[in-house]
Amino acid sequence: MKKINNNELYSLLQVVKHNGNIKKLTRIGLTFQDIIENIKYLSKEKKLDSIDGKIQLTEEGEKLFSELSKKYKNTDKDKWIEEELESKLDKLDSNFIYLPNQNKLYF
Predict the structure, then answer these.
(1) Does residue 95 sit within a domain?
(2) Where in the sequence is the domain holding 50, given as residue range(s)?
(3) Helix %, strand %, coil % of the chain (to 5)
């Protein structure tokens, strides 16, 4: 089992608390196996509990989440939405007329 750091732990608890998407955790470098093993570990430590098939934070988990959120909560609003770089075009001359390839349009 990979030992996760506090920032990754905060992200994991945030996903569980808000019933979020675990893709966020894979983007910060955790594998699905790491996520599952850490959920099992946190369940044994009484930080998480499964109620009606849904994983939720226990009181201890809520305390840990609030402690970690003081330090790791992302308050920089510019980082809330990640920049999408795939479709970004280079700067074009002001007289250039761009005509997109009709075969590559997906709408």
Answers:
(1) no
(2) 6-73
(3) 45, 5, 45
**Within-domain flag for 80:** no
- pLDDT for res 1: 67
- Residue that the structure tokens 């608890």 belong to: 13
Q: Kindly report the CA angle at 12 between 75 and 61, in degrees rounded to 5? A: 95
Number of domains in the chain: 1
pLDDT values of the chain reduced to their tens digit, one per residue, 107 residues = 677 888 889 899 999 999 989 888 898 889 999 999 999 999 999 999 998 889 999 999 999 999 988 887 766 666 667 777 788 878 878 888 877 788 877 76
Look up the CATH number of the domain holding residue 15. Answer: 1.10.10.10
Q: At what angle do helices 32-44 and 6-17 cross, to 10 degrees?
A: 80
| In a domain? residue 21 | yes
CA-based radius of gyration for the chain: 20
